[in-house]
């Protein structure tokens, strides 16, 4: 006889809470129902330690369509920008006539494994595994049991799963093109990294594609980035310090900031130096954070298409599920979603 299956009651006993509380936390509804973060953490840790898995559907129901899909993420719901991925995924799920189940793991690998296994036990029709920010990952073995799509995740090893990513390379080209179209052919400087991508902060994998696109677009017309100011973190204070350091040794005509929060700091440094945007210095950036439209003048930026990313992942999940085995494997490629330019008032021809 095999080992006894761990139950909700077992987890509840270890943590010292009710079975209902355990069920709510493991189904991803703990935060919505105001269960404390400490209790949620303890429940997840206990479930992982005990190797808890939810009861499987009755044998007679196996193989039947559940008309549900799962959206499992690290911190998408709690992200100011990436939360729009869920809205996109919800809209696509409605179009496909299914219910979207959502769970957030806060980056806990053990809890992620438990969540995926739980979703599989419920026979969801597919899983979207998502990240709030583009990063590399080892694809969990638990995803191999059925249709799955990676969102904002790049597999470290070859994988048959499709990946949905923002097109950061073309975004870099687009940012550079904005300056070229405004007749900027010199005095262009980067804020956020060195010209070759050195000193990029951890977790900013997209920066390399952005930089490659920038250099490619400028290089095709014989223009070069004159300098790059690395920033330890992409926050306003670091953008301020980097821009102030640049102004101490050069007079830029245009800045390409690798993140809108860096651009906020750059605006402040330029103002302190008595320079205006865009009269003295044009500024273009990335992400379309709410601060981009709040700044005065409004910041021209290349937007992360969070809504479209979420919708595309769900659409691909259903395309993948409809394909036979060999074709499904061939779909294990990267699908890049265009990043649109939000034209505002921070770019003008040089004086």
Automatic annotation (TrEMBL):
GO molecular function: DNA binding
PROSITE patterns: HTH_LACI_1, HTH_LACI_2
Domain HTH lacI-type stretches: 6-63
SUPFAM superfamilies cross-referenced by the UniProt entry: lambda repressor-like DNA-binding domains (SSF47413), Periplasmic binding protein-like I (SSF53822)
SMART domains in alphabetical order: HTH_LACI
Record-linked InterPro entries: HTH_LacI, LacI/GalR-like_sensor, Lambda_DNA-bd_dom_sf, Peripla_BP_I
Keywords on record: DNA-binding, Repressor, Transcription, Transcription regulation
One Pfam family from the record: LacI
Ranges where the record places region Disordered: 322-351
Compositionally biased residues, Basic and acidic residues: 342-351
Gene3D superfamilies: 3.40.50.2300, lambda repressor-like DNA-binding domains
PANTHER family according to UniProt: HTH-TYPE TRANSCRIPTIONAL REPRESSOR PURR-RELATED, LACI-RELATED TRANSCRIPTIONAL REPRESSOR
Protein name from the UniProt record: LacI family DNA-binding transcriptional regulator
Biological source species: Saccharothrix xinjiangensis
């Amino acid at each position: 006889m095999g080992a006894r299956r761990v139950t909700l009651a077992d987890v509840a006993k270890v943590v010292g809470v009710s079975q209902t509380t355990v069920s709510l936390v493991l189904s991803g509804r703990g935060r919505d129902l105001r269960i404390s973060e400490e209790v949620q953490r303890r429940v997840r840790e206990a479930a992982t330690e005990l190797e808890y898995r939810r009861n499987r559907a009755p044998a007679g129901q196996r193989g039947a369509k559940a008309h549900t899909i799962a959206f499992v993420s690290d911190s998408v719901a709690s992200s100011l920008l990436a939360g729009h991925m869920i809205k996109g995924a919800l809209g696509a799920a409605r179009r496909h006539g299914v219910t979207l189940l959502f769970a957030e793991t806060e980056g806990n690998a053990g809890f992620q494994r438990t969540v995926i296994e739980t979703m599989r036990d419920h026979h969801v029709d597919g899983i979207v595994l998502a990240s709030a920010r583009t990063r590399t990952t080892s694809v969990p073995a638990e995803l191999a049991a059925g249709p799955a799509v990676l969102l904002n995740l790049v597999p470290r090893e070859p994988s048959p799963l499709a990946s949905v990513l923002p097109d950061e390379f073309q975004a870099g080209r687009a940012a550079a093109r904005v300056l070229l179209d405004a007749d900027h052919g010199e005095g262009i400087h980067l804020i956020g990294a060195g010209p070759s991508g050195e000193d990029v902060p951890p977790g900013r994998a997209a920066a390399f594609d952005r930089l490659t696109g920038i250099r490619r677009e400028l290089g095709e017309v014989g223009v070069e980035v004159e300098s790059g100011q690395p920033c330890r973190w992409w926050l306003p204070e670091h953008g301020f310090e980097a821009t102030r350091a640049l102004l101490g040794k050069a007079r830029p005509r245009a800045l390409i900031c690798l993140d809108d929060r860096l651009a906020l700091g750059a605006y402040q440094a330029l103002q302190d130096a008595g320079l205006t945007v865009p009269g003295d210095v044009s500024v273009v950036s990335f992400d379309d954070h709410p601060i981009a439209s709040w700044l005065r003048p409004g910041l021209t930026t290349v937007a992360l298409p969070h809504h479209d990313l979420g919708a595309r992942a769900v659409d691909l999940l259903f395309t993948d599920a409809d394909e036979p085995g060999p074709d499904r494997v061939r779909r294990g490629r990267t699908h890049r979603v265009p990043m649109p330019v939000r034209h505002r008032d921070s770019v003008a021809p040089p004086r």
